[in-house]
Design a protein that fits this description.
By secondary structure, the chain is of the alpha/beta class. The chain has six helices and six strands. The longest helix is centred in the C-terminal third of the chain and has 16 residues, at 157-172. The radius of gyration is 16 Å and the shape is globular. The structure holds flavin mononucleotide (FMN).
Length: 185
């Protein structure tokens, strides 16, 4: 079973995190971290609490618990996704502050050369945001913005969410049927 870390932070778009979680949970070992603001957004946008994620194969870590397994480079993981990624968390990861478990686990992913995907949701971007994203890309992370495409004729918000989550799953090398492969006319 693959092992992934999912971090939910305080950007709009927690539906992306829920969908990614729902697809991965039956087939992977998941380590979930929710920032304080991420928890508020979960409640505001989906009416959920962290209790929703208490399922088989899942460990929910406190963001303050800096000595959790996933804070160590000796704990192998197949990838980490920060989804949605607030500009605050993104900036702190770019600065290497490691003061919360989310920041530390991301720092570990970078230093161990493991996969780290950030799914930012902000518009417009300031020059500081853009510089932080460039810093992260240069350090080996992938910036995968929550930018759904429209060429598959989405019929619902769920289709738009699936488009973004499908791109994350592609990067994680997890097979899925969320979207159809692109077929040119
Ligand atoms: C309702 C609401 C929506 C927000 N949406 C975003 C957003 O889309 N992107 C973002 O970068 N920050 C957003 N923020 C701001 C972050 O929540 C804030 O910067 C917070 O400190 C991030 O904390 P965290 O990175 O520890 O989760 C939003 C805040 C609120 C209250």
């Amino acid at each position: 079973m693959k092992r992934f870390v999912i971090a939910i932070t305080g950007a709009s778009g927690v539906c992306y995190a829920k969908r990614l979680f729902d697809v991965l949970q039956p087939q992977a070992e998941l380590h979930l971290i929710i920032s304080e603001r991420g928890g508020e957004l979960l409640n505001l946008e989906l009416g959920l609490t962290s209790k929703y994620f208490a399922k088989e194969n899942v460990t929910v870590h406190k963001n303050s618990k800096i000595n959790a397994s996933i804070a160590s480079g000796s704990f192998p993981v197949d990838g980490m996704v920060v989804i949605p990624a607030s500009m605050g968390t993104l900036g702190r990861i770019a600065a290497g502050t490691s003061e919360s478990l989310i920041e530390r686990a991301a720092d570990v992913a970078l230093k161990e050369r493991n996969q780290l995907i950030l799914v930012p949701r902000e518009t417009p971007f300031s020059q500081i945001h853009l510089k932080n994203m460039l810093t992260l890309d240069r350090a080996g992370a992938m910036i995968l913005p929550a930018n759904p495409g429209f060429y598959q004729n989405p019929k619902s918000v769920d289709d738009l969410v699936d488009f973004v989550v499908a791109r994350v799953l592609d990067q994680l090398n997890v097979a899925h049927h969320l979207t159809q492969p692109y077929k040119p006319e």
